[in-house]
Amino acid sequence: MGRPRTNDESVGERLVACATELLATGTRESLTVRAVAAAAGTSTTAVYSLFGGKDGLIVEVRDRAVAGLHQHLSAVPVSADPLSDLHALAVAYRRWGREHPRLYAVLFGGVQSFDPSGPVGTADPVRPLLAAIDRASTASVLTGEATRIALSLWVTLHGLVMLELAGALDATTAEITFRSTIDATLRGWMTPAAFRRHRGPGPSGTDSGMRECPGQ
Q1: Is the pLDDT of residue 197 over 90?
Q2: DSSP secondary-structure letter at 117?
Q3: Cα(131)–Cα(78) distance, rounded to whole angstroms?
Q4: What does the CA dihedral 123, 125, 129, 135 come to, rounded to 10 degrees?
Q5: How many CB atoms lie within 10 A of CB 121?
Q6: Under 8 Å between Cβ of 37 and 15
Q7: Nearest to 183 by CA among 155, 211, 164, 143
Q8: What would the pLDDT profile of 152-193 be if each residue is shown by its tens digit?
Q9: Contact of 93 with 213, CB cutoff 8 Å
């Protein structure tokens, strides 16, 4: 009869959860095999046998964060209005960050490095955003290089979500700021014709005629 397996899936899940917590609250350098094993209530051997060591465990945490955000954004329905789709993607991004603050901190706190000029993978969270921007450009709603538009929108979203997660904005201020700032960012990339079409009183007193998305 063989020896019982001790480094099973449940141990791996505990290690991933503890590594996520350590990475979200500290630095990559502060995560050691000994520290994460102790936090998970297992041995250092488990880290090596299940993940090949510290780097493999960090990759697993990072990949789960990337996959989670990508799946959440990919679930946003595509409509005939690419501008509304972009709003819906912004709402989904914010929601995922608020519902998964630890994974968000891991993803954008140093574990993941971003190269805006690099290739976009099939599971890259930016892919749904680029697809919506491409549709908006084809419909003559937005004008500009897609990657630059995506980066400007991400920078705006990231700043808002980080301030919200840090508790710097109360709920009302966060909601008003989110809507008005995303509207303003998108208006900055609109074609002149689209800008004229979308002028007018919008939510929270902003000059926007953009349709409000479900979930806002």
Answers
A1: no
A2: T
A3: 10
A4: 0
A5: 11
A6: yes
A7: 211
A8: 999 999 999 999 999 999 999 999 999 999 999 999 999 999
A9: no
Amino acid making up residue 93 = Y
Q: What is the separation, in whole angstroms, between the first and last Cα of the chain?
A: 58
Q: Two tokens at 71?
A: 């799946």
* Phi, psi angle pair for 138, to nearest 5°: -60, -35
Give the other-Cβ count within 10 Å of 40's Cβ. Answer: 19
Contacts of 70 (CB under 8 A, 6+ apart): 123, 124, 125, 127, 128
Closest CA to 190 of 131, 162, 149, 156: 149
SS3 72: helix
Euclidean distance between CA atoms 190 and 140, whole angstroms = 8
